[in-house]
């Protein structure tokens, strides 16, 4: 039995099972894989290790459940989602603890993620009833033209470890609201939260086969099986750009519809007319959220020369005071990295920057296990690897700029385009720069981008498609045009 028995109570005997066609059962292979706590390395649970065989069964279950689910009224689907939402909210604490165990994020952030993730379920329950179509003035008097929205069908969701709950609900809720059924492959690092969500969906009365969960240690094999299955009409993926490109190629033969939320390299511009304290607050909130492991985390901080030194001084003082620790410790503000590869990448990027002239103002060292000290680097330059690559760790490199044009050029000098941030009190500059930045989202004097009410997504190599907002259901809907003649 796990040492964390109480915190696994949402999954009585189910950690090692799949959820396919309304039944909890072992993976076809009979194999399991281990899930560990990043904070301590302790073994947390063994989880069913699905193979393409299980994917086939899950797609069959989703395909069979689809006609009845899409035939429900929008209000009936909405009710199931409202019940799921209520169950998630009622289990905030166990879900948050589970998430902290398996992802390492600090408990306050895990509680925040339960609220954030649940909000997508409530939002799309409401949107289900607003899947409006169009009536269009016809080109001749004897015709009427109407456009309706229909569910695309079986949808696959592949979700990342950095938001084990919210990325599941941000995909599953709009799919279910639109009348689709889902096969979900959660990240191998964090499958327990996804399985707990399935337990709550079952309790909320989501019918058998409408949501299916296939955890696996073989992400590539499961992705390939989902793309190859012609019955899967839609794939939504959040994760790295490299994997997104591979999935896109694998989806091409079946023309499977895709939404891709991929890597980022977010610039954070501080102009000399900015209020510095809110800018420092914003940089810390965005840079150190989830230990720097979000796709919208600030990756490059550009500060105008006149305020550069003052900004670095204030930022470094605040960062030096951040407390690292096991996320279950209520005092911890920064947790561990997810795995050894992530830690090695952070160390490599910092070493590269220092070898090219960056100075460590605070931090700059590993702290045992998977912990890395919250770090500020100054004198960063575009030649350094961390200017071009996503650090995905608690490292804030500061660059200096002189003019607005230079800042925009440096910010856009990346293949990515997910989030960007700017701080200025000049409203004209805010508009100009926000419009010039090549990204799907811009935070202006505010870094809180993620919300169920706004469209989340990127441009360039950060992918395409939008999640959340009234646009979030479009990914799971086909438009059908009806042309009535003889009127
Ligand atoms: C992500 O890192 O992919 C999601 C971040 C968010 O939803 O705020």
CATH class category of the largest domain: Alpha Beta
* Approximate shape: globular
CATH-defined superfamily of the largest domain: Aldehyde Dehydrogenase, Chain A, domain 1
Radius of gyration: 23 Å
Helix fraction bin: 25-40%
Count of spatially separate domains: 2
Report the portion of residues in β strands.
15-25%
**Judging by the overall fold, what is the CATH architecture of the largest domain?**
3-Layer(aba) Sandwich
Low-confidence stretches: none
What is the count of DSSP helices, taking H or I runs of 4+ residues? 14
Cα(first) to Cα(last) distance is 70 Å
Task: Give the helices and strands, then pairings.
Layout (H helix, E strand, L loop, with lengths): L17 E3 L2 E3 L6 E5 L6 E6 L3 H20 L2 H17 L1 H12 L3 H22 L5 E3 L7 E8 L2 E5 L7 H13 L3 E4 L5 H13 L7 E3 L5 H10 L3 E7 L2 H11 L5 E5 L4 E5 L5 H13 L9 E7 H16 L19 H16 L3 E4 L12 E4 L6 H4 L6 E7 L2 H9 L6 E5 L3 H10 L4 E4 L18 E2 L12 E8 L3
Parallel strand pairs: 7-8, 7-10, 8-9, 10-11, 12-13, 12-17, 13-16, 15-16, 17-18
Antiparallel strand pairs: 1-2, 3-4, 5-6, 6-20, 11-19, 14-15
Helix pairs in contact: 1-7, 2-4, 2-5, 2-6, 3-4, 3-6, 4-5, 9-10
The structure holds succinic acid.
């Amino acid at each position: 039995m796990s040492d964390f028995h109480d915190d696994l109570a949402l999954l009585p005997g189910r950690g090692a099972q799949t959820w396919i066609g309304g039944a909890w059962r072992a993976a076809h292979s009979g194999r399991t894989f281990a899930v560990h706590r990043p904070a301590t390395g302790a073994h947390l649970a063994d989880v069913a290790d699905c193979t393409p065989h299980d994917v086939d069964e899950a797609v069959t279950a989703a395909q069979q459940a689809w006609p009845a689910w899409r035939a429900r009224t929008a209000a009936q689907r909405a009710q199931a989602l409202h019940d799921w939402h209520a169950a998630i909210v009622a289990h905030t604490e166990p879900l948050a603890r589970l998430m902290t165990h398996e992802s390492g994020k600090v408990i306050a952030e895990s509680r925040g993620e339960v609220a954030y993730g649940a909000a997508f379920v409530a939002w799309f329950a409401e949107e289900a009833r607003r899947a409006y179509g169009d009536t269009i003035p016809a080109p001749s008097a004897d015709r009427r033209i109407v456009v309706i929205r229909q569910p695309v069908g079986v949808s696959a969701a592949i979700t990342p470890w950095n938001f084990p709950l919210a990325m599941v609900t941000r995909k599953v809720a709009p799919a279910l609201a639109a009348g689709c059924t889902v096969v979900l492959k959660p990240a191998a690092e964090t499958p327990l939260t996804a399985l707990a969500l399935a337990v709550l969906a079952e309790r909320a009365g989501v019918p058998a086969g409408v949501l299916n969960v296939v955890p696996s240690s073989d992400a590539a094999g499961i992705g390939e099986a989902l793309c190859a299955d012609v019955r899967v009409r839609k794939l939504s993926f959040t994760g790295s750009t490299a994997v997104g490109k591979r999935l896109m190629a694998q989806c091409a033969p079946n023309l499977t519809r895709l939404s891709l939320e991929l890597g980022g390299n977010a610039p954070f511009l501080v102009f000399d007319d900015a209020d510095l304290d809110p800018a420092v607050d914003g940089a810390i909130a965005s840079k150190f959220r989830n230990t720097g492991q979000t796709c919208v985390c600030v990756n490059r901080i550009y500060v105008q020369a006149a305020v550069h030194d003052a900004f670095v001084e204030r930022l470094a003082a605040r960062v030096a005071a951040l407390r690292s620790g096991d996320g279950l410790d209520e005092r911890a503000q920064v947790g561990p990295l997810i795995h050894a590869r992530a830690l090695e990448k952070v160390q490599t990027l910092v070493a590269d920057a220092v070898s090219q002239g960056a100075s460590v103002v605070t931090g700059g060292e590993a702290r045992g296990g998977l912990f890395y000290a919250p770090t500020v680097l100054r004198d960063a330059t575009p030649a350094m690897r961390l200017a071009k690559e996503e650090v995905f760790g608690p490292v804030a490199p500061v660059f200096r700029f002189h003019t607005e044009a230079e800042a925009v050029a440096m910010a856009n000098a990346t293949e990515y385009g997910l989030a960007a941030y700017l701080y200025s009190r000049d409203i004209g500059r805010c508009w100009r720069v926000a419009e010039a930045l090549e990204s799907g989202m811009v935070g202006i004097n505010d870094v809180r981008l993620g919300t169920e009410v706004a469209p989340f997504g990127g441009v360039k190599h950060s992918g395409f498609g939008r999640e959340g907002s009234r646009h979030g259901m479009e990914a799971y809907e086909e438009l059908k045009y009806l042309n009535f003649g003889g009127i």
